[in-house]
Design goal:
Strand order of the largest sheet: 3-2-1-4-5-6-11
Shape: globular
Oligomer: single chain
CATH topology of one domain: Rossmann fold
Largest sheet: 7 strands, parallel
Amino acid sequence: MLELRNKKILVTGGAGFIGSHLVDALIQEQPGNLIVIDNLFLGKKENLDSAFDQCPSLTFIEQDASEYEAMQSIIRKYKIDVTFNLAVIPLPTSLERPKWTVDQNIAITTTLCNLAKEQEFKTLIHFSSSEAYGSAINVPMSEEHLLSPTTPYAASKAADDHVVLSFCETFNIDASILRPFNNYGPRQNDKAYAGIIPIVINNVAKGEPIEIFGDGDQTRDFLYVTDTAYAAVAMYKFVQTRGQVTNVASGQEISVNSLVKTLLKILKAENHPVVHTDPRPGDVRRHCADIKKAQNLLNFNPKTNINDGLRATVNWYLQKVASN
């Protein structure tokens, strides 16, 4: 098993929701150097406040990870050993700016893969997305499930995975792909392109109705963000993950209606108004992961159940609202 202690690590998209929690987890590994790159399209430097408290030597660089020469310069300057790639243009943006989303996401991945091919750094841990699968045909959804993306974002993430695997096969780069399902927890974006959980919490706090796209019976597999962060650390350590895709999820599905109902109960707002609007274009109908591979390869088992995770998330956002 490999170790991250004293390694020089780069995290792209590290000021984002999942990225900042990964940075927190990596600090516990005592790396030799930790560099965070983010273009702040969705990420926020304040997401790294606790990381800077824990690790004052942390370096943050505002940079577009798709720019090859700039990334090469950074990787050479800091003599990077390991890159965790979380830089991404998100799904909702692809409904407004499809070409740009696809171009950017694929450019980020090909840039890093080519730099790995040129031996500018040793190991790439690439973050995929469950959206690459499209709606579930078989449940639970294993890594062999058909890739049938339904949005430009999902198509770009499926393409990214093929790019990484092709570089593994053709050029023997040292890379693993982590395919997370729906993450939630503190620091999830609650402004533009917000997820359902922060939207519910904020709308209750503001006294505004909660909007559910479609009938709300669509399901998702939610995983608390720190579980994903620690799975990513483990993915580096366990070399048997190389050249493969591994699901990281809870293995449980919950409908959007049930999720909202649970959140309203936690918020003591059971009678808060909920409205159903037209389905979102390309929205997947059902997601539930098979996590046997992660259990076998990473010794992975989620530590935070949905009820405890939602309570912790609600408390974090309410404290944020109260402090503003």
